[in-house]
Structures are given as C-alpha cells and as structure tokens.
TrEMBL record:
Name under which the protein is recorded: Uncharacterized protein
Organism of this sequence: Gymnopus androsaceus JB14
Domain of life: Eukaryota
Length: 156
C-alpha cells in the first residue's frame, strides 16, 4: 500500500551476498530509493519491526556507503579489465580512498565516522593485496606482456 501511495513500482529488496559486493550496492541503492516506504512500513507497530528502524544518521551512512560502492561498481564492471591493469587500478582506488577519508575530492561529500573507518580498513586491505603482487609470477608475466606491447611501437 505505501509503495503504491508513493507511485513506486513494487520491488523486492535484493538479498546481500557476502562474496558479491555489487549486490550490497544494489541493496543499499534500492533501499535508499524506497526510503520513505521502508521507513513507513518498519515504523508501523503492527508489523513488529520498529526495532529495525534506522536513524537519520544511519540513513546518511547508507548514502555514503552507496556512493563509495557506486564508484567501485562502475570501475570494476568495465569490459577492459585485465590482469595488467591491476596495479594501475589499485593505485587509482588507493588515491580515491585516501581522498575520501581526507575529504579532498571534487564532490566535497563529508563522510561519517563509520564510513571513514571502513574506508581506512579497505585501504589497509588493498595495501596487503598490493604487496602480494610483488611475489606473483603470473602478475609479472602479465605486466611484461602488457609493457612489451605498449613500448613495441617506440622501439620499432
């Protein structure tokens, strides 16, 4: 009823799957689009869900998380992803995470403390993976092949 009153199409929220972070983005994005309907439904005492109601701060945190995941989803969903693009991608993500934590980006979006903490944890995890590429034979082969194709035209 609430969804129809708000002229929204009835929709199921996607379930979160731990190993598929892009589903987390989809779930949060849809929840934010249906925020009014969800809030109305959850706050109705007849539904017995009032303990799950989100505060305005928690909704703001969800908006922050959605913005971060949206950039990551768009970046990782491109068709041009290759093993040789791992380090440049990691460098870009590292810069984006640092800018987001320090609020040095063009959007001037101020992230909440929990989101900043999560971004710092993501940055730390990313740095662990970055260090692991130094010992990867497969990555070295991919990079040498990639660089050889890039510099071939300069040499010949």
């Amino acid at each position: 009823k609430t969804v129809a009153d708000l002229n929204l199409c009835p929709k199921r929220l996607p379930r979160d799957v731990r190993t598929r972070w892009n589903l987390t983005f989809d779930m949060i994005n849809i929840a934010l689009k249906y925020k009014t309907a969800l809030t109305s439904f959850i706050s109705d005492p007849d539904n017995g869900l009032t303990r799950f109601a989100l505060s305005s701060t928690e909704w703001a945190i969800l908006e922050n998380v959605r913005d971060v995941l949206q950039d990551a989803t768009l970046f990782c969903s491109r068709d041009s992803a290759t093993l040789a693009s791992v380090i440049p991608a990691m460098d870009k993500i590292n810069k984006l995470l640092a800018a987001a934590v320090l609020k040095k980006d063009k959007t001037n979006v101020m992230f909440t403390a929990p989101v900043k903490t999560a971004l710092l944890a993501a940055k730390k995890t990313l740095n662990c993976y970055y260090a692991a590429t130094d010992n990867s034979r497969v990555y070295r082969i991919a990079m040498s092949t990639y660089l050889a194709s890039k510099f071939y035209f300069l040499l010949f």
